[in-house]
Amino acid sequence: MKIAIVCYPTFGGSGVVATELGLALAEKGHEIHFITYKQPVRLELLSKNIQFHEVSVPDYPLFHYQPYELALSSKLVDMVKLHRIEVLHVHYAIPHAYAGYMAKMMLQAEGISIPIVTTLHGTDITLVGNHPFYKPAVTFSINKSDVVTSVSQSLKDDTNRLFDITSEIDVVPNFIDVEKYTNPYTDCQRGLMAEEDEFIITHISNLRPVKRIQDVIEIFYRVQQKIPATLIMVGEGPEKDPAERLCREKGIQDKVRFVGNSSEIDKILCFSDLFLLPSEKESFGLAALEAMASGVPVISSNTGGLSEVNEQGVSGYLSDVGNVAEMANNAISILKDPDELKKFKQQAKQVAKKFDTQNIVPMYEEVYQKAVAYV
Ligand code: GMT
């Protein structure tokens, strides 16, 4: 099929999932057109089945806000006509589902029918989309999509609870190429990051308030009091400065490394022993899945879709949001016993296999077939 994928090209989970989906579909012989304002970060390899079309928004002084949705929907119309695209798959409701619907209407006026598949990722529903400023437009564009998917059952439930949704939502979980994370490097180069006797604990996110970065530091602070450990903080965001300050206040600044954004997540996870994700909200927790696929047990909160990914007592442990004492105790219980750590590492990898690309991408192919049958 010829499929257009619209996403945010940045380090956010929705863009990563959209990019990996496009790459996997291209490998299966589909023709994929990425349409967004910048080449997606994980789209390093262009192949004959993949094209990237940039949406440019000219900077016109009259506009206080540049009209991105308008430029995107115009680009979608042009690309659908030029490449005879059969499905528009938009990731993240805001503003992509809205732009997709406008493109569909413009094309319809020219006698061209195209279905819209909208994938809801999390914050487009639970944080941003829910705001009264956006809610009517988000509700409208979800209801006008031909097929709507959500990345977890929890997000589906949230969407139905928070919005007046008239269409059925299909749950298609996020996925991962497990093989890519299976000991990709013979030497993980732990020595670059920690002393020989230290455990390596990792957190990866966009360091926004919803990730509860202060809790990450609190948990680590308690763990390192009992067990030699170092913390690697991957990502950039507004909580970075307060977190660095907290580390200094607690006197652990030498044990915490803020390494910024990274395209080498698999390398970092290769030498990690434990992953922390104590988020306030998390529709799925792709970073937790990446950790598990690398054999890294996860200590997380039990919010949103995290319990659909991280299995209690199997791939790690889940606690109530903010219960840093329990999270620290669980972390210590895994790290202090080498047999326990080994067991959790193996189990984490096993659980991750359920979400392997090979199991999930066919679900999206079915979604496309269903969408095409609607128009
Ligand atoms: O919060 C993030 O990490 C970014 C955000 C996004 O939209 O890019 O992530 C959301 O989508 C990811 C991919 O589906 C999910 O794994 C994350 O759980 C979800 N984030 C939240 O719900 C807070």
UniProtKB/TrEMBL annotation:
Example GO molecular function: glycosyltransferase activity
Pfam family membership, one: Glyco_transf_4
One GO BP: bacillithiol biosynthetic process
Matches recorded under InterPro entries: Glyco_trans_1, Glyco_trans_4-like_N, Thiol_BshA
Record protein name field: N-acetyl-alpha-D-glucosaminyl L-malate synthase BshA
Domain Glycosyltransferase subfamily 4-like N-terminal: 11-180
NCBIfam families named among the record's database cross-references: thiol_BshA
Every Glycosyl transferase family domain range: 195-350
